Design the sequence.
């Protein structure tokens, strides 16, 4: 949330807010998606209108990551000239926890006074969301690396039929498949990063997010199965890595949404 919001604040020259976030004095997040528009900007219904010289926002944003702890909320809303970006205080915040334990919130605005950072911000918002997607891809590769290491270590410790299960060829093949997928995801992330400042940014980020969404989910599921019962216990770190990897697919548009972005 901070990464995306920081890029937007910097793009809109909100220097004081950028300084506060970088210094750790404030937390910022972007409230963009809605129930009718869960992973695109196409059907956003939140509206912003001027009343006596003041911008007022009305609408509801869903599953805002970092929403429960955010000091600064940036919201995307329709204006007469397109999609605007606003700094706004929520009228209400309904906090929840995602499956990976991260804080999310449904944030509502009811004639909420707002500061307009840009009246036509669609391109800069898309660029910031792509930066977030790239960060999620990199996080997925790192988390998958750690989970693979934990899985291999567990296979070496657990014994059946008088020998470590790491010696079973079928399990070795599954571990090799996991390692191969992680390397493919790492290469795709590096490629997408190299294209970030080019006209091909959106295409390569969509391909990367699609691939890594599939890989991350598979790694999380395989690690849980290879661990057996302990892979599902709250006290074991591997369970949290698995949940986070599966959640990474759904953030900022899942694998299916990325295919639609490519087709568009």
Sequence:
């Amino acid at each position: 949330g901070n990464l995306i919001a920081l890029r937007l604040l910097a793009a809109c020259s909100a220097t004081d807010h950028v300084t506060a976030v970088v210094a750790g004095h404030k937390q910022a997040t972007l409230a963009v998606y809605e129930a009718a528009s869960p992973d695109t900007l196409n059907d956003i219904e939140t509206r912003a209108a001027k009343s006596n010289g003041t911008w007022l926002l009305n609408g509801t944003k869903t599953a805002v990551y970092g929403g429960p702890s955010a000091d600064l909320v940036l919201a995307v809303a329709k204006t007469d000239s397109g999609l605007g970006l606003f700094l706004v205080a929520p009228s209400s915040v309904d906090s929840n926890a995602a499956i990976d334990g991260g804080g999310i919130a449904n944030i509502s605005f009811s004639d909420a006074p707002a500061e307009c950072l840009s009246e036509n911000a669609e391109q800069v918002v898309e660029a910031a969301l792509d930066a977030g997607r790239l960060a999620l891809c990199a996080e997925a590769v790192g988390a998958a690396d750690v989970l693979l290491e934990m899985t291999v270590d567990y296979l070496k410790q657990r014994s059946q039929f008088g020998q470590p299960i790491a010696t079973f060829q079928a399990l070795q093949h599954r571990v090799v498949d996991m390692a191969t997928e992680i390397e493919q995801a790492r290469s795709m992330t590096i490629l997408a990063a190299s294209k970030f400042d080019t006209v091909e940014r959106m295409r390569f980020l969509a391909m990367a997010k699609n691939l890594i969404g599939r890989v991350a989910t598979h790694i999380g599921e395989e690690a849980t199965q290879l661990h057996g019962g302990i892979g599902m216990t709250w006290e074991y770190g591997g369970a949290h890595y698995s949940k986070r990897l599966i959640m990474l697919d759904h953030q900022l548009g899942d694998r299916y949404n990325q295919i639609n972005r490519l087709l568009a």
Q: What stands out?
A: Residues 122-157 form the longest helix (36 residues). The mean pLDDT is 94. The beta strands are 28-31, 47-51, 54-65, 72-79, 82-88, 92-97, 103-118, 159-160, 163-164.
